[in-house]
UniProtKB/TrEMBL annotation, chain B:
Protein name: MaoC family dehydratase
UniProt feature coiled coil, ranges: none
InterPro entries registered for this protein in UniProt: FAS1-like_DH_region (IPR039569), HotDog_dom_sf (IPR029069)
Domain FAS1-like dehydratase residues, every copy: 5-133
Origin species: Hyphococcus luteus
Source organism phylogeny: Bacteria, Pseudomonadati, Pseudomonadota, Alphaproteobacteria, Parvularculales
């Protein structure tokens, strides 16, 4: 068991994981995510489509970019393969320039199939305190 | 309204390779700091055959014109009304660059709320590895804004 796993393994229900911040999300960040994920849906990549076809003021951020950031709560502090499940509900659109704080709070810790699994509630909150996405992550923190 | 008889509709199986360059770009796009997801030497030192896929990278494998837009066309979904409502990934183990997974995409549910103003389509892709072992699930809920 490495140091990362030991740290996570010592967390109890109610504890929080270190928060992550996206910083203001630029069109460049959206373009990079479109390239990395191959999700080139015009609602994310074409301002003319966003305005005139989808009736939006601008392109919107991929929901999956937000989920990817939420998943970092489980990848930056745990070894590869530790994240066994992640679920996200996209509650509202994320816009260009939004700055999200991604948080995780331990809601459950139990032994399952010979492993200890930490379940954390996830939330991505906008600069004006609107929660744009919520979710849940299961992280293996060691053998039972 | 989407034809409810599509519930249970299963698409042709497809093979998807976890491509290293694409995985590196994906990790970069998310600003991932743990280099096991982007640096082969780090991944190998940890005992993996190559860089490891981020948990949400599974979305990339199922993002293909035939699967994504092909299904929207078949169901008659207008892209301009489409939103991503919910997403879940279940991962059996760490997946590495170079692996080939076989996926099968299925429509598991279609329902509506607010007198049809919002319709929901739930799809699921089950992935198995080259040895036929279960590797993971991509479960997605799309929302269609009809009004």
């Amino acid at each position: 068991m490495n140091e990362q796993t030991q740290k996570l393994g010592s967390l109890k229900v109610g504890d929080t994981l270190p928060a992550l911040q996206t910083g203001p999300i630029s069109r460049h960040a959206i373009a990079l995510y479109a390239a990395g994920s191959s999700d080139l849906n015009p609602i994310h990549t074409d301002i003319d489509f966003a305005k005139h076809k989808a009736g939006l003021p601008d392109v919107i951020v991929h929901g999956m970019f937000v989920m990817g950031y939420l998943a970092k709560i489980g990848t930056e502090y745990a070894p590869a393969g530790a994240v066994r499940r992640i679920k996200t509900q996209f509650r509202t659109m994320t816009n260009v320039g939004d700055n999200l704080v991604c948080t995780g709070k331990v809601t459950d810790k139990q032994s399952r199939d010979g492993a200890t699994i930490l379940t954390c509630a996830l939330a991505a909150t906008r600069q004006d305190d609107v929660v744009v996405a919520t979710g849940e992550i299961d992280i293996v923190v060691g053998a039972a | 309204m989407i034809d409810r008889s599509f519930i249970g509709f299963e698409m042709e199986p497809f093979d998807a390779t976890l491509e290293k360059g694409q995985m590196e770009l994906f990790a970069k796009a998310l600003g991932e700091k743990n280099s096991i997801y982007s640096d082969e030497s780090v991944a190998r030192a940890e005992g993996y055959s190559s860089i490891v896929a981020l948990p949400t990278y599974l979305i990339r494998l199922g993002t293909r014109d035939d699967l994504t837009y092909g299904l929207f066309d078949k169901l008659g979904i207008d892209l301009a009304k489409l939103l991503h409502g919910e997403q879940e990934f279940i991962l059996e183990r760490a997946l590495c660059a170079g692996e080939i997974l076989r996926g099968v995409k299925k429509v598991v549910d279609i329902f509506d709320k607010k007198d049809g103003a919002l319709e929901f389509v739930v799809t699921e892709i089950q992935y198995h590895d080259e040895k036929g072992r279960f590797a993971g699930i991509d479960r997605c809920t799309f929302v269609i804004r009809n009004r």
